Known about the structure:
Layout: H1 16-25, H2 33-47
Amino acid sequence: METTSPPKHQRVWVTTAEARETLRQLGQWQWQLENVEATITGWSRRKLRF
């Protein structure tokens, strides 16, 4: 019997409006701005090739 591994999680790009709505729904969570910016910068460098 062959076993298969579950599909790998894929990152999905969303619009700013979709991200904003998701963050709004999270309510009282707090975000460390430096970490958010570093994460976005890292994603951009890997995904957006100019």
